[in-house]
Every structure is written in structure tokens, then in C-alpha cells.
Amino acid sequence: MSEKLTNNESARYQAPEEQHRAAEQSPPSQETTTGHQEKLGELRKAIEHQADTVEKAASNQHESEKPAPSPHHATKQIKQQKFNEIMMITQKHLKYPSRQFSKLIHNKNVEAISEVGAATIARPSGILGGSIIAIAGSIAILMIARQVGFRVPSSVFVTLFIIGFFVGIFMDAIIRAVKKIIKR
After folding, report:
1. Cα 127–129–135 angle (5° rounding)?
2. Domains in the chain: how many in total?
3. For residue range 47-80, what is the model confidence (pLDDT) as tens digits?
4. Is 1 part of a structural domain of the chain?
5. Helix (H, G, I), strand (E, B) or coil at 68
6. Which structural domain range is residue 132 located in?
């Protein structure tokens, strides 16, 4: 294949490097510059529009992906279920007599009676008041009885404890009422 290029054809053909040099050396024409600027402006607008739609879609997707707020509080059912699980695990580690005693104590009926007793009878203020008055009153009565010379019945201590218990509960109620008034 011995084909030769003519002058016209060789003038049209230039190596890519030569084309690049020629483009750098020759000043761009006014028509190509304005045409490029228009295209660049259109491309910028299209890119900005696409970026805005992508941002909106991403924010909507993040909002829709968020799970519905779930309550973080424990319900009675969850508490009872966890209590039963813990009791089973704990009782498995106990010896047989201790396990049976634990089952007896943690029976629903026994726990209900215990809670009522804790809320009414075993008030700390009542027990404290009862014990203070019972001890102080017993000492005072015994000292007086010794001086005067009469015999003290054994029910005095129990009676003084009951009186002191009610005095302690009464004082606790008064203190709570005063605190409530002060808070206002």
C-alpha cells in the first residue's frame, strides 16, 4: 500500500499534539467564547437543579427512615416479665430449702399482704416514735415505781410502744403538711 497524501490532505491532517498547540496559540473567536459561556451557564443551572433535588430527596429519605418514636418507659407487663425472669435465674442458683422459701415469700398473695403492711403498719416514723417513747417511758415508769414502791405490769412497754407509734405517725403527717405548705 503505497498511498501518498497530497498537500491538501496532509494540510488537513495534523497530529493531536500539533492541534493542541495550535489551539493554545490561536486566540478563541468571539462566537466560540459566547457559545461556550452559554453552555457553561446552562450546565451550571442543570447541576444546581439536580443537586437541589438530590438534597431534598436525601432529606426526605432521612426523615422517612427515622423510626417512629417508641416509648422508653417500662410498662407493668415488661416489669413483671423481667421480674419473673430474674426470679427464675436467681432461684436456680439457690439450694432447695432456700428456693422453696423464696417461692413462698415471692408468692403474689404474700407480697400483696407485705406491701399493705409496709405502707401502713411498718412506717419508719411510727416504729421510731414507738421505740423512743417505749424506751423512755419504760425507764421513767420503772424509776418512779422503784421510788414509790409499786409493781409495774409487763404490758406497759407494749402500751407505750403503741402510743409512741401513733405519735410518730402523727408527727410524720404534720411534717409532710408543713413541707407541702412551704413548697407553695
Report:
1. 95
2. 3
3. 888 877 777 776 766 565 655 556 667 788 888 8
4. no
5. coil
6. 123-184
